[in-house]
Fold each of these.
Amino acid sequence: QDRFFPSCVCVCVPASSMEQCACVERELEKVLHRFVMYGHQSEERLDELLRSVCEIRAQLVAFGVQDADLSVLSQNMTQCCKNIKETVQMLASRHKDIHGSVSKVGKAIDRNFDAEISAVVAETVWDTAERQKYLSESIVEHLYRQGMLSVAEDLCQESGVVIDMSMKQPFLELNRILEALRMQDLRPALEWAVSNRQRLLELNSSLEFKLHRLYFISLLSGGIGNQMEALQYARHFQPFASQHQRDIQILMGSLVYLRHGIENSPYRSLLETNQWAEICNIFTRDACALLGLSVESPLSVSFASGCMALPVLMNIKQVIEQRQCSGVWTHKDELPIEIDLGKKCWYHSVFACPILRQQTSESNPPMKLICGHVISRDALNKLTNAGKLKCPYCPMEQNPSHAKQIYF
């Protein structure tokens, strides 16, 4: 993620505030409303015309031209043709009006959005083949995460990016299990959780228990016919008895009301449908942790950061131009001020030593002390006295050789 400049991944962001977005949204809602009304009116008028044509055709089939009153038939057909012509003209006219509304949306976008963002973009950010390769790899990884495997493969072929199968396989398995969970099929996720039980326990994860719990609830929703199967399946809760005792008691207590239906009992909250969305999120989080991946795609995080940062950058640019302070923004990889992106976007590509107030590097990496505090190697060496080190925060006395390098 530290390879991306947040302000370089957005194409169109509001120039100053959410008010501009609301203005465009109002115009868009008007267009969508007109489209819906146009669709309903078109269907009604076309259905009426179709019935009229079918009635005339039925008369011709039933009576024949010889027996029918030609004057009446001619009059009906003339009126039908007239109605068809009027309907076509009416639909064409209203369709033309919709085109006018669509053009207003475009004008609202032009009026409220600043399309020229080159002034706040680093000119050389993608000027090397290596950086372009990083971008392509990030996009491919994002597509794999979203389950868009065929699109990712096409991008690899067109961009020349070679993705190792070892990188693809985790995403293939992850998407296969998530797709099954969305179809409310728990078996693939349960098989995966059982096979990774020990690693999940090391993460203090409750994924396997919640999968068994959800499967048990699915049996309860089947009614009294699943009572014996539910009792037998309850044996899967045994390994989790100490950690989830209260939850297991609730599940077993619900069996008392199985004959009358769980939905009619005090345990009806067990049947809430939002549990499936929750289990998908838990599985994604824990699976990504085991695979050494971030829960969110680095590309989506960079894009979200750019969406929040770009309006501020545009305002900075405007202030600099107005006050003629061209020398403020002199570095391509630095900003003149800090932009608050919220705690969700707190990422650190470098570590600043809290003792020496300097950024760490390959020659001066971060070192983790046995007490858990982290300082730079230079600070570690300077604080060491007679082969002993006293942590400046605890202060805990320890052997400097026990410190571990955690970066680079």
Amino acid sequence: QIGTFLVLGFSVTALFILSVLWGDQWKTVRLSFQITAPYLHIGAITLMVLLSWPVALHAIRADKKVVQVIIVGPYLAILLFLFLIPLGMYSPCIREMGTLGPKPALIGHRGAPMLAPENTEMSFQKTIEHGGDGLETDVTISYDGVPFLMHDSTLRRTTNIKEVYPNVSAQNAALFSWDTLQELNAGTWFLKDKPFSYMGSLSRAEQEQAMNQSIYTLSAFLRLAESQNKLVIFDLYRPPEKHPYRNSWINRTLEVILNESGIRPHLVLWLENDMRSFVQSVAPGFQQTVGSKAPVEDLLMDNIVKLNLAYTEMSSEDIRKYAEANITTNLYVVNEPWLFSLAWCSGAHSVTTDAVHTLKNLSQPLFLM
């Protein structure tokens, strides 16, 4: 009894810890069943058909009715369960012919980070080269007011700051001047650290190009997007305390977008919530985007036209509800073909992805029935 309680206690504790630490992973598993459940169901039925002869043979050979019931009873119970499963089964990829929506647009997550150093000119060029429809990035502002692209709060992961300025390598990226940032190499880490286990192969010329990448400015990024007619979406990071642009970060970013880049406003998916009313007043052409679900009425009141959601929040019902109000849905970060297929079947209008070069090749969703 003590052993049983110990095992039970350990199992419950382990499941609790996994549910806390692996919350997103469990959500992904649940999403995967929307794709695989029909095939698992068919496979289970096939297995039960194969087992029917051995079960029947053992039941017939049994001398006692009780033994026959013990053999046949569980088998029939499982068959009944499999018969009833379709009543509660849902998969958006089971649909009538002609009802599948258009393929979601592909937005390169920090460019094409499997093919080039993230948030660099080469990375965004690779996204464009492979047919991406939009570009996603992260924007912060240098100490002297130059908006530039950087995801991390420090420069240690994606530049050679530890080699050039080791004593200040842990300092917030926004506390450096643009002259200092320009000195850094933003590409050698990519070939050394290999951030993805399934990265695309690079030619010798591409490796040389990657090694010579530098930090990219927001202005140059926007000019590239404008020249290629690509949508842009970015997370805008507020500078830290005592930064000269701490309280004018949005104004400075707008100045670059509206006065220095030349990008057409409708290509900008504006995600930042702070000062949204002000942004709408000075840049009414931006596509106002929000990062969380909300009642349709509230979204329309704020002129929201797009939702930018984590793929774990994927819901075909919600996507359809918002679409009826002309609010489209973008899901991030979607890299695997099966997950992209589920987003496609669910009606997502676009996805942010690290794998534009892979997903571009899908002509229809996997597992479509």
Amino acid sequence: MSPPLLKLGAVLSTMAMISNWMSQTLPSLVGLNTTRITTSDALTQISPKEGWQVYSSAQDPDGRCICTVVAPEQNLCSRDAKSRQLRQLLEKVQNMSQSIEVLNLRTQRDFQYVLKMETQMKGLKAKFRQIEDDRKTLMTKHFQELKEKMDELLPLIPVLEQYKTDAKLITQFKEEIRNLSTVLTGIQEEIGAYDYEELHQRVLSLETRLRDCMKKLTCGKLMKITGPITVKTSGTRFGAWMTDPLASEKNNRVWYMDSYTNNKIVREYKSIADFVSGAESRTYNLPFKWAGTNHVVYNGSLYFNKYQSNIVIKYSFDTARVLAQRSLEYAGFHNVYPYTWGGFSDIDLMADEIGLWAVYATNQNAGNIVISQLNQDTLEVLKSWSTGYPKRSAGESFMICGTLYVTNSHLTGAKVYYSYSTKTSTYEYTDIPFHNQYFHISMLDYNARDRALYAWNNGHQVLFNVTLFHVIKTEDDT
């Protein structure tokens, strides 16, 4: 093959390699094989864990609506991660654009040579037709030599046509790279090209402002229950699981108490993740059996109802000892005044933003619910409120900000039907539905730290989110 043909062959070989590289590598570099990149407001969908979450609404004295927002964890600074990924992606596209530009210059230079050569070949072909028409004017030998040369060049014509097509493809690639670079630059400008320290300080500043705002929120009124989220499926139909609402942010221990009677074993897990995987960290053998499923962990101690009695026990997890015990005067026990599902659920111990509570019924109050606030150290009753709601008609109950919320059933179709405020000593009938996914609830308890309801739902450990209506404190409030 002649030198021009060798040169053309090298160019075509390079074109083939570049085309193959573009088809296989370009999609993975720019994310076209996984994520469709557009000029929308975000490059990818940020998951709930990484994003900002609004978990409650508020209203100030002037009637303005305020939303309370939960910031993402500091070590999950997703916008910074996305910015870094975007910069890296943009650098790759820019490098690729430079390579395409070099290839394009070489291609255009050779393309001009090809066009010139194509013109010469077509002219040569026309001359051969003329010669062939008047072959008598030339010597037979010279004509045969020229025809052989032409025969050698004829196979090159379709190659030249393909080369023109590949040159157009390079031009298209160049235009697509330019467009993609423009899109990525625009996205980068929209989300802001912050470095890590700058973005980190912005997050910390926002978190501080949110915490200051939270300090102005008084206790809220229950407005809505959403969920449930199934955390785990384990144990019998009846049981309790809980975390400590007064524990530090780094302390996420979970306690698990299966069954409503004839048991003294409490299982501890270091975190929700360990609880889900079954990685038990410690086991406690209580000195007494418990009754019911309405126990509570509060400030490092377990509070439970001693089996076949109206005695409340305070048990320390740190010392594995009973720190206090006290009888609830006149409180019914051993299925005298249980919830609708039975199970020795006469005495319900719970905690909220205000403190420790006991919910039960007495003969003196005609079997209706009595609410008592307890001293967490001595278990002494600080104050009691007598309601008019029959304990045996209640499915479950829980305290939020000093208000008792009572469900009308433990079965499908249950809803929060009644509430009693210890602040005003008044009650009201409510209609707040929630999804009883597994048809039988034997434990429902509010955790003030998590702002969630923990539930044991027919052998499933689930969580419900709550929406509270907050009243904003003003400078005039005492």
Amino acid sequence: MNFSEPFKLSGLLGRFSPDGRCLASCVQYRLVVRDAGTLQILQLYTCLDHIQYIEWSSDSLFILCAMYKRGIVQVWSLEQPDWHCKIDEGSAGLVASCWSPDGRHILNTTEFHLRITVWSLCTKSVSYIKYPKACQQGLAFTKDGRYMAVAERRDCKDFVSIFVCSDWQLLRHFDTETQDLFGIEWAPNGCVLAVWDTCLEYKILLYSLDGRLLSTYRAYEWSLGIKSIAWSPSSQFLAIGSYDEKVRILNHVTWKKITEFEHPATVANAKTIVYKEVEKSPSVETERLSFPPTRALANSLFSTQSKYDISQVPVSLQYIKPVADRANPKMGIGMLAFSSDNCYLATKNDNIPNAVWIWDIQKLKLSVVLEQLCAVQFFQWDPRQPRLAVCTGNSKVYLWSPAGCVSVQVPVEGDFQIVCLSWHSSGDSMALLSKENFCVCYLERDEV
């Protein structure tokens, strides 16, 4: 495993291009595009203000930079560095911006969610979508890029409109049986749209492409409901993470629950492997000690390394009781993700912030628990194989695969707290992001 030197970064804005050739990063108002393999700078662009969001077009030829404070989006071309485009929403303001699947249209959401403006880079034409709902996830494209669903709010009622992305014509418009719609997400095969309600009401609705209600699922009433959802890559399973610290799995045939995964503070099943991260002080040979010590030696002396031990069950995990009188309590299933081969589901229970739970989907049982020393900030699956990367806000990256578990210290000087990471599409490398820097980790084929 090799690491690049650290590079400056702001706003956690570091993204690999979809084709895997480039890596874009932002430093305040500058956009830096590097070769993903050599990290040589290919292009350097200067924007009008601090960049708050970046996104690659699907064909990796363009990159948009959104400056929400000024209501401006700037678009840059990698093929023609002299060409650029500026979209100014003016007094309407700007709260969100994204590409359409064809990489030639930009969708801007104005302040107060008054409308979504669809800008064409080819014809310079403009279309408007009225009444978009201000919710966490109100815009969703099918994976094949043919259709777009938009959550809307009109006359105190929730609606969903489905558009054809080729010409932005309205295909279907229907009302949803939600009190206060919170999010929408297509199944990867594009046949089913999941619509879920605010956390005050446990309700998830499944609609077909033509707007028919296929099924409604409610696990319980009169308590905080859905916190997160995830589709399996095959579209066969829908995982629903709830505030009651459970994950429920629905199947794609009857849309009924096939199982539920609990996240107790004590892991008691003898068949579950619990990897516990333990710190170990580095051993230094006294003959090598010099005064003053070299920089490399000083770094190895004062950086604590860690490794995984396999704990004997039962294992008690650190459980944090949520503060009842605060908004957005730290409780329930805040993160969940399926592996690319559909075999595993990784989850995090916010009540037990230092643990990652890995479930075997074929056997529908808990396979592994990773018990970390610090709270888990983020995890993501390798896009090519069942390999999970985890970061916990320190200078280490953790990798799990069915073969085992490893903790790797990033050899960077100074304070490098990894709070986010992003896999390359090949699975051979990943970008490790801290608040002020990023570096790239290169993995050998046979590692882990």
